[in-house]
Amino acid sequence: MKANKTNNPLRLGLWVFLLLALLTAVEFAFALWFGSWLLLLLAALAKAGLVLVYYMHIAKLFKVDESIDRESYGYKLATNRLGLWLFMVSDSFIFGGLMLSRLNLMGLTRPELDQALGLGVTSLLLVSSFFMNRAETSLAGGDRRAFLASAFITILLGIGFIIGVLGVEWQLAPFGPGDGPQGTVFYSMTGFHAFHVFTGIVFLVIIFRNGLRGRYSVEKHWAVEACAVYWHFVDVVWIFFYPALYLIGTVVP
Amino acid sequence: MKEFFSLGLVRGLVYQFFGALAGIGIISGIRALMGLETAGSFGFSEPAWVFGALLGAITFLFGSGVLDDWLKWAAGEETADHHDGSHLGWRRYFGPSLDHKVIGIQYLVTALFVMAVGGSLALVFRTELAASGLQFLTTTFQVFQQNGMQLYNTLMSLHGMLMIVSILLGIAALMNYAVPLLIGARDMAFPRLNAFSFWIAVPAAIILLSSLFLGGFDTGWTGYPPLSARAPLGMQMFFLGVSLAGFSSILGGLNILATVIRLRVPGMAPFRMPIFVWASVATSIISLTATQLIGLSFQMVMLQRLFGLGFFDPAKGGNPVLFQHLFWFYSHPAVYVFVLPGLGIISELLPVFVRKPLFGYRWVAMSSLGIALVGFLVWGHHMFTSGMAEYLRVPFMYSTLLVAVPTGVKFFSWVGTVWRGKISFPTPMLYVLAGIIVFLMGGLTGPPNATVATDLHLHDTYYIVGHFHDTMFGGYIFPFFAAIYFWFPKVTGRRMNETLGKIQFWLLTPSFLALTFSMMQVGLLGMRRRVADYDPALGFDLSHLVMTISGFLVAASALLFIINLIHSARKGEPAPGNIWDSRSPEWQVASPMPVENYEIPFEVVGEPYDYGMPGSKFVEFKRGRHESK
Amino acid sequence: MKHMLLIGILVAISTISIHTGLDSIGLLPPQASAQAIAIDELFEWHVWMISFLFSLIVVTLVYSLIAFRRRRGETGDGAHIEGHAGLEVLWTMAPLFVVVYLAFIGAQSLGETRRVDPSALEVDVIAGQWFWRFEYPGQGVVSTELVLPVDRQVYLRMESLDVIHSFWVPEFRVKQDIVPGQVTELRITPIMTGSYKVLCAELCGTSHAYMEAVVIVLDESDFADWLAGQSASVEDDPVARGRRLSEQNGCLACHSVDGSQKVGPTWTGLFGSQVRLADDSVALADENFIISSILDPDMQVVEGYTAGVMPSNYRDLFEESQLDDIVAYIISLGK
User: What is the CATH number of domain B97-621?
Assistant: First the structure.
């Protein structure tokens, strides 16, 4: 019975991931062969939609609960969920501001960046989202082992992303932070985003450690849910930042 | 001694001091290892000071104890849901408390303190401006590594931002104290987040104040680059202080929204909420979202200074006008954050003193949301002369004028509320009425700024200064005083002194009107804002003298207020019951408010403002009801 | 209702009184440009609107406060009136129409101020901390005063050397920020001869309050005379060249040539003197000292003055020969 409870959501998680990977490849193709910002935007919206619905379970936010006991766990859980989403709405404004600044400063040109690296770090993040979803789903289904393993892999992939961006890309970029709009846009967008990935990793380490000590149950694991939803949010930001930095328009001469 | 250092505030400050030193040391050390210059204008390099200030703020939070519960959760420990600190007595106000009422008072006291400092700075430069020619802030006058004219710029800039911070703290005080009471909740949705929102404002304010001593800054509170990119070290303290204070506003807004959505008593439908709750919701929508943009724009200049990123540096392909777009995208909606709670107070209190329903309650509720929404679309009216794209000017003019419509609904509703009432005039009512009239003046002096052609003349003059002082006093200061006089008995069980209150009111109101009228008069005639000196040939000396004297009288009235507050808290006339005969739930229980708010939850059995309908009630406390568990 | 009638009369009286009162104060400076005419007409609309709306609300409010006040000994509540849908619609729609109309005439007014005259006189405006320079490209004239012909549009092309400044002559009404990295434009048609001041209207640092220049509007023939009198040729005398450079690049905004106290040290008697510095050392004010003070102002700050005030971009603005000319001028001001 336990296996059945987790099977379908796990499989769903896998399908969503495969779709996301496919859409990423499609994006790349769009950029290469069509160069249309509108198509790239649509692809990004589709990816974001998938993550919002299937990984972040946005529908849970609108579940009307009829319980009136304000002190019950279930009531507080729903309140916590609302709080987290309000937080993410607020955080979006920072990334929105960065995006608008990028468009104001560089228009439809983009910085000169290594595409392989870009695809590489994007893949790391995407796969990490898959494992993050797997971790949350496993725990919700009672499989603590799988939760721990998947959470651990997510941490590694997250660290990999940070190393990939700060350790590799930042060092190899042909321009520095003070080198024109390229530098301004690239370092600020990847910097703010990487900071959020870092905080996500810290969150993950905390829930991993607490998970090891058996603090979470099928009924009570809000911290894990929150960590997962936050992680996916950071992924959604990258879903928009990646094409904005690597795929849109033409390279600055 | 031990007791002193056990207070959260004290420990926080000690931790902040050492954290700042550590931060300065760490960066200086790293720089030394990297072969970079470690010395700077105030001993250490700018990056060292910035990191030191930031680390100091973080260590403050640890030292204060506000993070303790969260740290326990991270370590996998459980904590109690409610920490009852009532046994601590007065001490609980000096450390983290989870009780929204304590936090509200903490916000209030801090707001008044910041207001006093900000106001005092204004008195200094108003003294300088009383006559043309430089009196004492001359070029030979030197303090804190600034000459007199640089100091003028710093004082004027800090006055602006300190008043803004004091308003944010003041509205947080009102909303935090009142909203849970008005909706029948035991506390806010996230009490620890609530405590955090207050406590982060403390190091933020300290860092902001430190700018005065670290070279000051000469940009005005708006911090425009390129000037802010080349300003002294104080500029960074300003940017950092504001960013941190911004978090207080953002998280506070989040808490209000979650609380109102999730914790209303069952039966309190949205259109049966007290109107101040609607005002708080509209305010919080803005503060949750738009505030991020002032943080972002300031952090961009910080990054430009620290790491050479070229956001606003034309030499690096940057765009100075981009800053203004980002900055005003928050800072315009921000002014609605400042006034929506106060306008909500006016709507909330009028029915009590005219004994009549709030006219068109639903329309008034919607008007707050309307102002908030339209308020997001008007920021360009601060930039009509900025050199932004020409095609933007007319649309922003239309959207700006449109805000007058929901605002007008409020004014007409207030008149409708007063019409055929049975009106009495205790001190809170005086403040409400003056608030209406002063905010009306502020609002009516807006359209000339909204129409682009006239704004070309008015922009950056004292007319603008007069306009926003009218709107800020009318929309915040006057209703703020009204709210405190009104709810003081609920908080303390005593009344504030009526005679002193009326004296304070009559001292404040005419002085303030003289102040802002003079401002607008000289502004129209050519007086620029943000100038330390002005040409005697302009003939503005008399008006400036009037402004200075009025300013001092306003300050005197504020002092009177604080005296009244402190004196009444200790020796005020006892007021244990519903002294205003209000229908609102909080007045149906004893004063001071019990620590758990409503031991027996109330039920909503009628409309909030059905004054004049005999036998009607808004809420009822069903005593002896058993909950089957 | 007799209340309404009475209120109506009082509102009318109040409106007219306020409007008359405001008009009699003389709210605006003299109208010295064609743009000012359009703008002042719009202001007049606003004054009427303000007078009326203020009266409408305040008179009704105060009337109510008096008429419906609780008299001594009276108990009981007010009338139970919850609202009135018709009134709500009225006072939502009417203001809506009014503001849309106001925006419409506002746009028209703006259009008036932006009228382009293809035969406008072009003047380039250079703004820097804390001075103005005006260049007449068509005539090869450079001046520290803005001299303009009456009844002819001037097309200002404006650039900043450092931070954001703003061009404003109150009598002309229109204002435009000057943004580094861009060229901003302003068109003005002076209609009254006379002397005015252009003021910097965007906070630009320490001496923002003093950043002004003289504006003179002349008859066409006087203007032609003035143009002719401006010599565009390079002068032979280095002292004269140096003086002109000092005038046109803002030096004299902060350094006096008559010994008086300004934002920076006076140049009178500077050359060859022993200068006490902020770090208590003493330096000789020779050529090298003066030139390095221009190029790196914060390296050797004079005692009694603060660092960070003098702009440090002069190394981008001056050639070596120009620096020598300035030194020559300073030498001429006495030892």
Answer: 1.20.210.10
